[in-house]
Design goal:
The structure holds 2 protein chains of 2 kinds. In chain A, a hairpin with a 2-residue loop joins strand 4 and strand 5. Chain A has 12 helices and 14 strands. By secondary structure, chain A is α/β, with parallel strands linked by helices. In chain A, helix 5 packs parallel to helix 6. Helix content of chain B is about 75%, strand content about 0%. Chain B has 13 helices and no strands. The mean pLDDT of chain B is about 90. Classes of the chains: A alpha/beta, B mainly alpha.
Amino acid sequence: MECAVEARGLVKVYPGGVRAVDGVSFCIRRGEIFSLLGPNGAGKTTTVKMLATLLRPTSGDAYIMGRSVVRERGEVRRLIGLAPQDLTSDDEMSGWDNVYIQARLYGYPPGEARERARWALEYMGLLDVAGRKAATYSGGMRRRLEIAMSIVHRPSVLFLDEPTLGLDVQSRRHLWGLIRSLRREGVTILLTTHYMEEAEALSDRVAIIDHGRIIAEGAPAELVARLGGDRVHIVMGSPGEAERLAGELAARGWRARAAGREVVVTVENAAEALPRLAPLVRGAREIRVSRPNLEEVFLELTGRSLREGEEALDSFRYRVLARRIRR
Amino acid sequence: MLDETLVLTWREVRKWLGRRGVLVSSLVTPLVWIALFGKSFNLQALLQPPPGSLPPGSEQLVRAMQEALRRRILELFGTTDYFTFMASGMLVVFSVFQGMFSGVSVIFDKRLGYMERLLSTPTPRPAIFLSRVLATLFRVTVLDTLLLAAALAMGMHLREGVTPIDLLAAWAYVLLLAAALSAGYATLSFYAEHQEVLFAASNLINLPLMFSSNALFPLKQMPDWLQAIAKANPVTHAASLVRHHLIGAPIDNYTLSLAYLTALTAALLLAGLYLSIRWMENR
C-alpha cells in the first residue's frame, strides 16, 4: 500500500516538558481525505506542524510522498500546501495580491504566478472579488481565500487545520463541497477538526486523537459500527441521580453508564428495548434515542465530550478570528 | 532567493502604502520635534548684544567677541543655525526609530499565523529575514526624503555647493544605520512572543541612542564620560557623516566613522540571519 503521508512514531515534547504528541503513527493513502479528530489540545495541530516542517519531531519521522520531514524539508515543502488554523491572509491587501504573492513564493515567475493565482481564485469561487481587500470578505470567503493560497502550486498533499472554524452551517457546507472536489482532482487531504459532523461528512478515514495519542482509526461508519446499536439517553435531575440509575440498570444487566446528568444505555435496537427499559426509570426529565455517531465514539473511548475545552483556544487568536470573521 | 526577498519586501511596502494617512502619522512626530525644538534654540540670538547695553567705545571689542563666539559655535555645531544642525541630526534619529517596525511586522506575522504559512513554503529562509530589513530601508528612504524636503522648506541650509553625490552619500549612511537597527529589532522579534517586549526594548534603546549622540547637541561640549559613550554610539558616526555631506560640518575621522558603521551593520545583519534562521528551522 502506498502512503501519501506516513507518520512513524511521531513525538513532540515542547520545551517545558509538555508531551503534545506522544507516538503517533498513521498512513494516509493517495487521494484520500483523512481526518484527525479530537478536542482542542489533543495534539492535532502539533502533528500537522511536524508534517508541514514547521516543528522538528522530538523523535520519530514522517514521509510526504516518500520524503522525510526531518531530512528532506525543502522537497517536502514543495509537495505540501498548508492552510493554518488562523486566518493568515493580509486583510489590508486584495485577495489577488494574497494569492499572487503565495505563487511567487513557490518560485513561479510573474507570468506563471498570475496564471496560478487566477486558477486558484477561480477554483475557490473568488475570482469576481479578487480585486477587493480581504478585509471586506465574509468569513466563508476568508476561509476559501486561505485554501486558494494553499493550493496555488497544486500540492500533492494539502493540510487543512480546522478549515471551517467559526463558520456558519451554510458556509461550512459550501467549503465541504470544495474540499471534496479537490480530492477528486487527486489531492491527498489531511484535515484536523473538532467538529464531529465535519469529520463524518468529509473523511474517508478518521483517526481519533486524545492526549497526543491515536486511540481509534478507521472509516467513520466502521468506527461507529464498533459501538454497536442505538443509544438511549435518560436525562436525570442531577449527576447523583444519574449515577444511581446507571448502577441500578447495570445491576439488571443493561449496558448503562452515567455521563453528567445523563445515563446512556447502549441497546441493540431502541424501539424494542424502550418498552422494557422505561418502567425501570423513575424521575427522568427527558428520554432521547440516538444512532451513534463519531461524537459518541469519542465519548465512549475517552469518557469526555469533544467540545470540552473549546475555550482553551488562545484567547488572542480567538479574538482576532472572531473579529475577522464578523466582518 | 533575491526574487522571494523582493516579493516579501513588496508585500510589506504594499501594506504600508495602503494604510491611509501613514505618511502624515509617521512624519508628524519628527516634524513637530524639529519645528519646536530646532526653532526654539536660536544660536544667532546669542551673538546679538542686548540693545542699549553697550558702554560707549566698546563696539570694536564687542565685534571681536561676537566673531570669537561665532567661530566657537561654528566649531562645535558646524553651522551657526541650530535648526539646520538639529534637522540634519533628526534625519538620522528618525531612521533609528523606524527600525522597530521591522520587528513589529515579524511579531504580527507570527501572531496572525502568516509566519507558519510562510515557513511551510520553500521560500529561502534568508529572504524572510532580509525582506523585513529591506522594507524598513524603503520606508526610511521615503520618509527621510519628505522630512528633508520639509526641513528645507522650514529654513534648513544645505552646504554651499552641495552635489547629488553628497545627497546619495548622506542617504547611504542613513540607510546603513537603519539596516543595523532594523536587523537588531527583527532578530529580537523572532524570539519575542509579544509586541510588548519589542516596545520595551525600543524604549530602552532608542532614546538613549539619541541623547548619547551628537544628533541633538555637539559632542565637544559634553562632559568627558558622555563623550566617550557618544563616540561608541553608531548614531554619532552616522550623524557626523550625514552632516559632513549635507551641511558641510567638519568631521573628525571620515574613514573611521564609515568603517565603524559598516562593521556594526554587517555584524548585526549576519547575526540576525544566523539567529532568525536558527529560530525558523529548529523549533
